[in-house]
C-alpha cells in the first residue's frame, strides 16, 4: 500500500461523510436561520424555540433521506471491502 492509495481512501471517506452529513446540516442551518428571524421579529428569546424545530426537521430529513443515506454508506463499505485484495496484493 502506497501513499496514493491511502490518500484516495481518505478522500473517498471524507466525500462519503460529507454526502451523508450535508443534507442534515443544511436543513438544520436553514431551520435555525428561519427560527432566528422569527425570534428577532418577535423578540422571543427561548432556547427551546430554536432547538426543537431543528430537531424535528433533522428527524424528518432522516426519515425521508434515510434509505438513500443507508445505500450510500453500504456502497462505500462494499467498495472498501472489495478493494482489500487489491490493496494487500
Descriptive notes:
With 89 residues, this protein is mainly α. It has one domain (3-88). It has 3 helices and no strands. The protein has helices at residues 3-42, 47-82, 84-88. α1 (3-42) runs antiparallel to α2 (47-82). It is elongated and about 65 Å long. It starts with a helix and ends with a helix. The mean pLDDT is 92.
Straight-line N-to-C gap: 8 Å
For the CA atoms, what is the radius of gyration? 19 Å
Number of strands: 0
What portion of the residues fall into strands of 2 or more residues? under 5%
Mean pLDDT rating: 92
Chain-wise SSE layout:
Blueprint: H1 3-42, H2 47-82, H3 84-88
Helix pairs in contact: 1-2
Question: In a few lines, what is going on in this structure?
Answer:
This protein is mainly alpha-helical and 89 residues long.
Index terms:
3 helices; 89 residues
Amino acid at each position: 500500500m502506497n501513499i496514493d492509495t491511502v490518500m484516495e481512501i481518505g478522500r473517498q471517506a471524507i466525500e462519503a461523510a460529507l454526502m451523508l452529513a450535508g443534507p442534515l446540516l443544511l436543513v438544520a442551518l436553514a431551520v435555525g436561520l428561519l427560527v432566528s428571524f422569527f425570534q428577532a421579529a418577535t423578540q422571543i428569546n427561548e432556547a427551546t424555540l430554536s432547538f426543537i424545530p431543528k430537531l424535528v426537521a433533522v428527524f424528518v430529513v432522516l426519515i425521508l433521506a434515510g434509505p438513500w443515506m443507508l445505500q450510500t454508506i453500504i456502497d462505500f463499505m462494499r467498495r472498501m471491502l472489495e478493494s482489500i485484495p487489491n490493496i494487500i496484493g
